[in-house]
Write a structure and sequence with these properties.
It contains 47 helices and 27 strands. The longest helix has 20 residues. The protein is of the alpha/beta class.
Length: 1016
């Protein structure tokens, strides 16, 4: 039996008193000291882990001020704080052992825009892409770009002075900050912007908290101006944290304290608002993808490209390209980055030109292409080909691939994973090729693999060496490499941190700044935060403090992970490999991943959150001497050794408030829709539904299941029986009394009605499976036949669709054979009935394995069911029984001849198709296939991007999920549904069609049913 896991590092009396005090003082947001929430906030996109004491979620500026003012009073003066945005930092900037102030959940308001003066004012939790989506209709964008733009917050960008693609032209975040609202550690509000230096000196002479800060910054920066200018490298990616140089303009006439705060990593104050300048969107764009025979060639060719006056030059190596080719994202760019016949492509430079007019760019582009043609003809500079595109959507697709490459590196096979710790070095661009050559030699000397990509125009390249942090020797090697890279960047006149801030690399600060200037940083820290209470250990410590800086040797995630048995780590690889990239926090409501996080904004309800929880749960089970794999094996292949009485007692104790960390994990898993978007959309392929099912199986070996689990888990047993009496069952189930009883007893609502007439009556006998007839069929007859694999939802609740499929197959000149219904097991797997699922899967696999010998194509109608054969069955069925292939109908239909079909509809009519989220992520070509089929039929089909509809199998029928289910529907589907006539709306998912019917009172057709009805 699994162990009961007691509270971990429970909140002490002081902390509880503090949280109670701020709530009493009017703090409107949430406070949370649960282990699950603290655990999720103990990691970011780095290798480090630091479990905080608590997390608070302010809703407004007043909340931030209240929290800090209360903490400035006795007895709370020992508490420390760390502001947090999107948690996308690669160096642990937002990790703290104190109290996390999470600005990302609520503070997402875009407050004000002034188009004439070209600025916008936003709260710190606004996400970069959210801001640009808001600005786009006005013709502007916030220029600093970064690969995590769909989840990184403006506050995080300000605190790390973030930048990325195009920084040579657009600069860093600090170049766009016009003003900041920051709260100091005692709650004092500090508003900063560029002012005349005379005014700054007048402020410094006053007798208050803010005057002390102005006075110290002036004192640190003005007398040391010459030293600062000589010490700081002359780079596009100038030295950050704290920016002593740019607090003044060149002639020392203006002073901007915001430049000190920008890049300070939350160590000086809590930034709550930012006023930002905005840049007009250039109406004309061209991207040239230049292909090389080696990565070195791509690097050495970059100065030549910068000379072409491009807006940006991005590069990726062959490792990144090959990983992208294995990911679903490649389907969107494969025709934009084609292979060169007979030559291997080992490097790629992406060169972008922007202009107000086409003429403005034409000469530059034509001249560059002419030079490239010469290089290719003469086989010079390693250039082997190039492709040019002016289509803005295609350009966005290529950059989406480039952005996702950051996460894709984490999907490298094996235990050694490319890690971010010395990967944002910046050197003068003219030194980059030699620097990287020596960098590669350094890594080669340690026999390490690595991936590379970056911004060659700015001299920044992301180099991620592959290490296994669970190996003590490789952890030591991380320190060695870090030290060597620091020395190497200094040799080439560069920086260790050109883009991603210092964080746990702060220990190298004194070496870069030198003792005199580093002490000035410490004095500034003292003026802002004398007692070292804000993000302590980052950037520097106060001048009077004896506290230490954080170190690259500090505790890492692997410290926790390596305490789990290696066999368990290997078995739960789909959770263990999560590297914190955080793509599952994507704010875009039209993105399928992750619906539960999108609707709750609680990071425990994300793939990263669930992976973190399950890893810690496995570690704590190991500490309790539980062999999880042995328990799991017994539950699936034998019997549960926990008696019903023990489960009853455990469940009763839970109801009475007895703690078990398993309950926190369970709560997170309950919010999962099991849509499986994470299994393909996540660059690491974190597979929540799989480890969720395993956890539920283990959890319910100790705690009783709710009745609704048995109702859902047995749907494939009950539906065939109930369908025989549908005309009797439906009126009863739909009656107010029975509906209310089902709702009360099972927590289940809006039960779908069984099909009348049944599928058996709708489809003629000649189309039903007949083993004798099948055995007597000739090979030619088999070649002309198609097996239709039934699923419980379409067969028993939407029989008209299955009958339509029979009609369409026949209309295409093929012989449809409707197979007998054999349970698939999907519902059992979702609810964690893994013993039952194993039996179901093996029985179904045996049946389909036997049928596969006939070499007749098999097709199914619902993606969520069909994908189980390809995915979950692999974990429970032996390979020799998996030699069958069940395709989704469209995968077979795309190869058929549609020329002879004539539809009785208006020619050139336009229809809208909304696809199932499982299809969208697992089979990204689905929309295009249906568009091609409709085009052959003389019809236009539009396929807008959508997220999850909110139904997801039975999720939307469960009482506890009603609010979230509706919110998800309104978030992504409702506007598309209501924008078209019901007769012109199509949907591929059974659950999606059911959701639309529930809220719109009219059910869209599946494309197959639409075609069947329209056949003349």
């Amino acid at each position: 039996m699994i162990a009961n896991i007691s509270q971990q590092d429970t909140a002490n009396e002081l902390l509880n008193d503090y949280l109670h005090t701020i709530k009493s003082a009017g703090f409107a947001g949430e406070t949370d000291c649960s282990y699950g929430t603290r655990l999720i906030n103990s990691t970011d996109n780095s290798i480090y882990q630091n479990v905080p004491q608590a997390v608070i979620f302010p809703k407004n500026n007043k909340d931030i001020q209240t929290a800090l003012q209360c903490a400035a009073q006795d007895p709370f003066l020992s508490l420390t704080f760390g502001p947090r945005g999107g948690g996308t930092g690669t160096n642990g900037q937002s990790l703290t052992p104190g109290i996390v102030i999470d600005l990302s959940r609520h503070m997402r308001e875009i407050i004000e825009i002034n188009v004439e003066e070209r600025w916008v004012r936003v709260q710190a939790g606004v996400i970069k892409d959210q801001l640009n989506d808001f600005l786009k209709p006005y013709g502007f964008f916030f220029a600093p770009d970064l690969s995590t733009s769909n989840r990184a917050t403006v506050g995080g960008m300000v605190n790390t002075d973030a930048s990325g693609q195009g920084s040579l032209v657009y600069g860093k975040t600090s170049d766009h900050v016009l003003g900041l609202k920051t709260y100091l550690v005692d709650g004092t509000e500090l508003n900063t912007s560029k002012i005349a230096i005379e005014k700054a000196k007048i402020i410094a002479e006053q007798d208050n908290r803010i005057a002390q800060i102005y006075s110290q910054v002036l004192e640190s920066c003005e007398p040391n101006r010459d030293l600062i200018l000589s010490k700081f490298p002359r780079l596009n990616r100038f030295l950050t944290g704290y920016d002593l140089e740019n607090v003044f303009n060149e002639d020392l006439s203006t002073f901007d304290l915001s430049r000190i705060i920008t890049g300070s990593e939350g160590s000086l104050g809590v930034v709550s608002e930012a006023k930002l300048n905005i840049t007009p969107i250039a109406p004309y764009k061209t991207l040239i993808n230049i292909k090389y025979d080696s990565f070195d060639s791509a690097l050495r060719n970059s100065p030549f490209l910068v000379e072409a006056q491009a807006t940006s030059v991005e590069t990726v190596d062959s490792k990144v390209l090959n990983l992208a080719k294995e990911d679903i994202i490649w389907h969107s760019v494969s025709d934009l980055i084609t292979d060169v016949p007979g030559i291997d492509m080992h490097g790629l430079n992406m060169v972008e030109f922007n202009g107000e007019t086409a003429d403005e760019m034409d000469d530059k582009i034509s001249e560059l292409c002419r030079k490239l043609d010469v290089l290719i003809a003469n086989k010079q500079a390693g250039v082997i080909g190039y492709q040019l595109t002016n289509n803005k959507e295609d350009i966005l697709k290529i950059y989406a691939m480039r952005k996702k490459s950051v996460g894709l590196l984490g999907n490298t096979k094996g235990k050694q994973k490319p890690l971010a710790f010395a990967e944002d070095t910046a050197v003068p661009p003219e030194n980059l090729a030699d620097f990287i050559s020596e960098f590669r030699a350094l890594l080669d000397s340690h026999n390490l693999q690595y991936g590379m990509f970056g911004h060659v125009d700015a001299g920044v390249l992301h180099v991620r060496p592959a290490l296994d942090m669970c190996d003590p020797e490789q952890e030591k090697l991380l320190r060695t490499i870090s030290d060597q890279v620091v020395a190497l960047t200094a040799k080439y006149g560069g920086l260790m941190w050109g883009e991603h801030g210092k964080g746990y690399r702060s220990e190298y600060g004194p070496e870069f700044f030198g003792e005199q200037l580093f002490n000035e940083l410490r004095k500034i820290k003292s003026a802002f935060d004398r007692d070292n209470r804000l993000n302590p250990g980052k950037i520097c410590t106060p001048i009077e403090s004896e506290d230490s800086l954080v170190s690259v040797d500090d505790k890492k995630r692997a410290w926790f992970d390596k305490r789990i048995d290696i066999d368990v780590r290997n078995s739960y690889e789909n959770a263990m490999n999560c590297n914190g990239n955080g793509l599952c926090f994507n704010y875009d409501e039209a993105s399928p991943m992750c619906p539960s996080y999108k609707v709750t904004k609680d990071r425990r309800h994300s793939p990263k959150g669930r992976a973190s929880l399950i890893r810690e749960w496995l570690r704590l089970q190991k500490e309790a001497n539980v062999d999880v794999l042995s328990v799991e094996k017994q539950l699936i292949h034998k019997e549960n050794d926990t008696t019903w009485w023990e489960r009853y007692r455990n469940s009763s104790a839970k109801k009475q408030g007895a703690y078990d960390f398993s309950h926190e994990v369970k709560e997170s898993m309950d919010e999962c829709l099991a849509c499986k978007a994470c299994t393909t959309a996540c660059p690491i392929k974190v597979d929540v539904p799989s480890f969720r099912a395993r956890f539920l199986n283990l959890y319910h070996s100790k705690y009783n299941r709710p009745l609704k689990d048995y109702l859902v888990g047995n749907i494939e047993t009950m539906a065939p029986i109930l369908s025989k009496f549908a005309s009797f069952v439906n009126p009863i189930v739909s009656s107010d009394l029975v509906s209310a009883s089902i709702k009360r007893m099972f927590g289940y609502v809006d039960t779908p009605m069984l099909s009348t007439p049944s599928l058996q009556r709708r489809v003629e006998d000649k189309y039903h499976y007949n083993e004798t007839l099948l055995e007597n069929m000739s090979e030619q007859e088999k070649l002309n036949s198609v097996f239709i694999v039934q699923d419980p939802f379409t067969s028993y609740y939407e029989a008209e669709l299955v009958a339509s499929c029979v009609d369409v197959v026949e209309a295409l000149g093929k012989t449809p054979i409707l197979l007998p219904f054999v349970p698939n097991g999907k519902a059992q797997h979702v609810k964690g009935f893994l013993k039952a699922f194993s039996k179901t899967a093996n029985k179904a696999a045996e049946f389909l394995h036997q049928l596969a010998q006939h070499n007749i194509p098999m097709i199914g109608l619902d993606a969520s069911l069909v994908m189980v054969y390809r995915d979950e069955y692999k974990q429970f069925v032996t390979d020799d029984k998996l030699d069958f292939s069940v395709r989704l109908a469209h995968e077979w239909l795309k190869d058929q001849d549609w020329s002879k079909l004539v539809l009785n509809v208006e020619p050139a009519s336009q229809y809208t198709l909304l696809t199932h989220c499982t299809e969208t992520t697992a089979l990204p070509s689905t929309s295009k296939v249906w568009q091609d089929i409709f085009s052959q039929l003389g019809l236009k089909l539009v396929t807008p991007n959508t997220g999850c509809c909110g139904m997801a199998g039975t999720y939307g029928h469960e009482l506890q999920n009603q609010k979230n289910s509706r919110t998800l529907y309104e978030m992504s589907w409702q506007s598309h549904v209501q924008a078209v006539s019901p007769d012109n709306l199509l949907a591929t998912g059974f659950s999606c069609r059911s959701q639309v019917k529930r809220y719109e009172k009219q059910k869209p057709l599946h494309p197959i049913e639409f075609i069947a009805r329209a056949i003349t």
